[in-house]
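Re: that backbone. Tokens:
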């Protein structure tokens, strides 16, 4: 970690320290709505970081990443709902289940040479199959959803994620910061360089002795596990889960947009992308509600237009351009 901090130029350290200090004290001046927006930003920054590890670094396109978030959330929520097992324990079960699904998908894809768009279709198929399964299982609530009733008498039980916005704000901040630190460490590790080699030219990497299958499987397992943790966080924040929302492809697209807009294969890309996209989406929702507009698909169209504009103007994402503009390039 000290090596990574030393690689950041002095100006970058100052900006990073100021940003963290600002986020730490922000709840003292923000209202409940703005805190909820920041909580969503932290969530999408974290799960975007998870997807970035798999696609941005290892080069494996997944369009069904909502599968892991949904599984993590459902497993932890069901353990709490039926057995009273808290999410701090349930998250391990959720991660294990999501990682198992990721292992199956990865094994099928990588062992049989399924790559590119076909691998993406495989991830979509698993997410859709799981959505249909959860939609038809009574113990998960089926299409009616699973609700985690909020009891005011348990509001202070942070160990059960029973708390207000302040609890989820700081937990979300920890997740976003932790995800960035993990990505930074992995990107500068031996495994990270193996991912880059596989991403750029798998055949050349194999000729140099890189275990491509092993490297890609580790990327899937790490990405699935992180996304499952994010799913647990979101499930207990919203106190509800619906198969049609938890596993749908639209949720997967929301997960991948932040790193794509911010900059694939970068540490701060998912964070910048989340800070751009989430407030824009929430503003659109507020405006449509204010004027009484009910236009299905408006948010998806808006996200698509935003993506087109940013990719046209900044093909590498916003963060590489912003980094050059502010002189924050990392030292080699």
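Recovered sequence:
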């Amino acid at each position: 970690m000290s090596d990574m901090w030393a690689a950041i130029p002095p100006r970058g350290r100052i900006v990073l320290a100021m940003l963290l200090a600002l986020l730490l004290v922000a709840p003292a001046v923000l209202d409940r709505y703005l805190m909820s927006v920041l909580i969503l930003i932290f969530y999408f920054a974290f799960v975007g970081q998870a997807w970035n590890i798999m696609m941005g670094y290892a080069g494996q396109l997944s369009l069904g990443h909502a599968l892991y978030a949904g599984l993590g959330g459902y497993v932890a929520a069901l353990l709490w709902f039926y057995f009273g097992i808290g999410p701090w324990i349930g998250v391990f079960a959720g991660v294990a289940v999501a990682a198992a699904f990721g292992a199956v998908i990865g094994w099928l894809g990588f062992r049989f040479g399924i790559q590119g768009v076909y691998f993406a279709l495989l991830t979509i198929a698993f997410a859709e199959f799981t959505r249909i399964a959860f939609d038809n299982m009574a113990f998960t609530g089926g299409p009616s959803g699973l609700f985690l009733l909020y009891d005011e008498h348990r509001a202070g039980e942070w160990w059960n994620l029973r708390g207000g916005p302040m609890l989820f704000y700081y937990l979300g901040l920890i997740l976003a910061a932790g995800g960035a630190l993990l990505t930074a460490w992995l990107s500068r590790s031996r495994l990270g360089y193996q991912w880059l080699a596989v991403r750029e030219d798998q055949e050349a990497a194999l000729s140099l002795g890189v275990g491509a299958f092993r490297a890609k499987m580790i990327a899937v397992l790490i990405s699935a596990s992180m996304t499952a943790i994010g799913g647990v966080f979101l499930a207990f924040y919203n106190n509800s889960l619906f198969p049609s929302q938890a596993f749908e492809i639209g949720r997967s697209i929301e997960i991948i947009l932040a790193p794509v807009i911010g900059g694939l294969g970068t540490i701060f890309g998912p964070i910048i992308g989340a800070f751009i996209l989430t407030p824009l989406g929430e503003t659109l929702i507020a405006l449509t509600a204010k004027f009484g507009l009910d236009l299905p698909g408006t948010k998806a169209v808006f996200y698509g237009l935003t993506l087109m504009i940013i990719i046209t103007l900044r093909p590498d994402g916003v963060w590489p351009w912003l980094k050059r503009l502010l002189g924050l390039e990392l030292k080699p």
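The longest strand covers residues 146-147. The two ends are 15 Å apart (CA to CA).
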